[in-house]
Amino acid sequence: MGDNTVRLWDVATRKGRPPLTGHTDSPWTVMFSPDGTLLASGSKDTSVRLWDVAKGESGAPLTGHDSDVVAVAFSPDGRTLVIGGQDGAVRLWDVATHNVRATVPLSSGILSVAVSPNGHTIAAGGGDGTTRLWDMLLYTPDEAVRRICHAVNRDLTAEERKAYLPDSPVGRACSPDS
């Protein structure tokens, strides 16, 4: 049995650094951010922790999965963390705000995730033997509304507005030129 810690070693001195503690069950997966300042660790406790590598500290865990977190991957710019869980969900987290940017539910548990070098595509390997690819381009709320308005070629209904734009002022969501 492990001690639920993440351990880093200084390769030059061949000495271990103090263990990173915080998970309440075994860590399954780890990955450094592209700039090497953060380490993401996913655990059997269903959470992910983002560790400041220099300080050996993490903030509040990223939560939301219903089962083991077994895969993590940073986007090339380090601003998005892709997390895969055995619950079949892939979540994209904003590293700076710790907010979920998107959730993609899949039909089987996730075994691996990867982000393409250009940051545009996510790959997720599932327990059902399939690998799925999808576009990772996430739009700002204003751009998303503009694209939706263009696609449906009308303004949003009252129900759509309430569901998707609950905090926006009353009025047209779509401009006439959308």
Major beta sheet, specifics?
4 strands, antiparallel
Strand order of the largest sheet: 3-4-5-6
| Structural domain tally | 2
Order of helices and strands: EEEEEEEEEEEEEHH
Q: How much β-strand is present in the residues?
A: 35-45%
Level-2 CATH architecture of the largest domain: 7 Propeller
The CATH class of the largest domain is Mainly Beta
Distance between the termini: 58 Å
Morphology call: elongated
Number of helices: 2
Structural class: mainly beta
- How many strand elements? 13
Mean pLDDT: 89
Low-confidence stretches: none
Instruction: Name the helicity range.
Output: 10-25%
CATH topology of the largest domain: Methylamine Dehydrogenase, Chain H
Spatial extent as radius of gyration: 19 Å
Say which CATH homologous superfamily of the largest domain is assigned: YVTN repeat-like/Quinoprotein amine dehydrogenase
Short note summarizing the structure:
With 178 residues, this protein is mainly beta. The chain contains 2 helices and 13 strands, in the order E-E-E-E-E-E-E-E-E-E-E-E-E-H-H.
Account of the protein in words:
- With 178 residues, the protein is mostly beta strands.
- It folds into 2 domains: 9-135, Methylamine Dehydrogenase, Chain H, CATH 2.130.10; 139-178.
- Helices cover 11% and strands 36% of the residues.
- It has helices at 141-152, 158-164, and strands at residues 9-10, 15-16, 27-32, 38-43, 48-52, 57-58, 69-74, 80-85, 89-94, 100-105, 110-115, 121-126, 131-135.
- Strands 3-4-5-6 form a 4-stranded antiparallel beta sheet, with no helix packed on it. A 4-stranded antiparallel beta sheet has the order 7-8-9-10, with no helix packed on it.
